Amino acid sequence: MPIRFYNTLTKAKQDFVPVLPGQVCMYHCGPTVYSFAHIGNFRAYIFADLLRRYLEYRGFQVHQVMNITDVGHLTDDSDEGEDKMLVAAGREGKDPWEIARFYSQAFFVDIEKLRIRKAMVYPRATEHVPQMVRLVERLIDRGLAYVSNRCVYFDVTRFPAYGRLSGNTLESLQAGARIEVNPDKRNPCDFTLWVTDDHHIMKWESPWGMGYPGWHIECSAMSMTHLSETLDIHTGGEDNIFPHHECEIAQSEGATGKPFVGCWMHTRHLLVDGRKMSKSLGNFHILRDLLERGYEADAVRYSLLSTNYRQPLNFTLEGVQASKQAVSRLRDFLRRLEEASATRDNPEAAALLARTVAGFEAAMDDDLNVSSALAALFEFVRDANRLSLSREDAALIRAAFGRFDQVLGVLECRPAILDEEIERLIQERQAARQAKNFARADAIRKDLKDRGIFLEDTPQGVRWKRG
Ligand code: AMP
Ligand code: ZN
Question: Which has the closest alpha carbon to 65: 281, 223, 297?
């Protein structure tokens, strides 16, 4: 059975057939590094991670790229407002390069905590300006872009498919366009490719003057540079559909004459009380605050991951708490498997497991229906709890859950730690402390904590418990 994904462009689920058999070129619109990513952003990135992990589980070699936007993203997506990087620089009294460095580092810390696997490369817009300039030149040469008052615009009337992704027509867009249009544009729907601005702090040379690229051209240029002119999958949050992705299609297909993307996948927004979680509404949470308040990264990951990406998801702290319990239920089950001691293998267990693997895969093949895939696992846990299992049965189950967790990334399917090893490590930590080797002592405590073992130093000695 082939995998089927919903394609925003065709508005239908379709069989996933990459350009090269067994290989997937996949591009994700990444963060604009002007502040901490909020967990709404992480819904989009965790979805991208789930997609990558499942494609790998299915045996594809995935070439995954996520860009970092560090220039040119204006406060208003329709070519209005100020560069977000400069606004942040003004707010924090730093230069925009420092802002970019600081928040991209913070982003990498967060993705690691959320067990998001690293993409092959995270290209930065500021490091690809020559490629963007070349792409803009190609568009001018092909008559799709024009220079006006030293800036460059894409002429949407020259690209008949403009509007197909978002379901807009040029007429409807024109009717809805703002009155206070930029007089340099031929058509109010034309969008910016290059802004010449001598006063912008982040600026580069170009044939049209010193300035900076438009946000949309960045993704076209970086995806071509690091992947290919035709991508198998391109993702983003639903707010990226228009104008960002609509413009990417026009630029990329306009320049190459080839299809840009086989399958467009968009994550529905993470909501708070029914409204999009966003910086501008101020209704956002950032990961480090949640962790400081005692919520666990795995629970946050699970709560963002466990609702299908095309369903709306309302974020609540109670939801994170419930996710923690769901993860614990699965982990506790795996831990209990350690106690399996029946002398005979149970054929029912193997049959149940085979059904569960099939159910998990069928659900994920169906446009990553993760909630139904998880339901298959919980059903298995419920049924397996009633069976008497041998050590061999338990080993098979653990191996299967290890494979599920390659996709889900929440179970920590490491071999369980035995009491004797905990005692041995505690002794070693005591010895390290006596020798004033505090680094080693701390490392042991952290290692144990990562494996779910918590130490407490009491006047009577060290106590430990499983967390
Ligand atoms: P930005 O840093 O604003 O460019 O956004 C980065 C990514 O996060 C984009 O793919 C957005 O579509 C996505 N995004 C922003 N807000 C949300 C939200 N509330 N829920 C899901 N995705 C979002
Ligand atoms: Zn993008």
Answer: 223
Query: What is residue 387's DSSP assignment?
Result: S
Q: Provide the pLDDT for residue 452.
A: 72
- Distance, in Å, from the CA atom of 458 to the CA atom of 398, rounded to the nearest integer, reads 35
Could you state, in order of their start, the residue ranges of all structural domains in the chain?
12-267, 272-408, 419-466
The set of residues, in sequence order, having a beta carbon less than 8 Å from that of 414 and lying 6+ positions away, is 451
**Tokens matching residue 397:** 């189950």
Residue identifier of the C-alpha nearest atom 8 of ligand 1: 41
pTM exceeds 0.85 for this model: yes
Q: Who lines ligand 1 at CB under 6 A?
A: 29, 31-32, 40-41, 43-44, 236-237, 239-240, 267, 269-270, 276-278
Longest Cα separation, the chain: 83
What pLDDT is recorded for position 358? Answer: 98
* CA gap 36, 97 in Å, rounded: 15
Q: Whose CA is nearest to atom 21 of ligand 1?
A: 269
Question: 391-408 and 347-365 are packed helices; what angle lies between their axes, rounded to 10 degrees?
Answer: 10
CATH code reported for the domain at 272-408: 1.10.730.10
Q: Can you tell me the mean pLDDT for 168-193?
A: 85
- Atom 12 of ligand 1, residue of closest alpha carbon: 237
What DSSP string runs through 58-82? TT-EEEEEE-BB-S--EEETTTEEE
DSSP string, 311-374: S-EE--HHHHHHHHHHHHHHHHHHHHGGG--BSS--HHHHHHHHHHHHHHHHHHHBT--HHHHH
Residue 113 pLDDT: 95
CA distance 235 to 352: 35
Q: Which CATH number fits domain 12-267: 3.40.50.300, 2.60.40.3450, 3.60.40.10, 3.40.50.620?
A: 3.40.50.620
Atom of ligand 1 nearest to the CA of 238: 12
Mean pLDDT across the chain: 94
Instruction: Please give the average per-residue pLDDT across 302-316, as a whole number.
Output: 97
pLDDT (average), residues 94-102 = 96
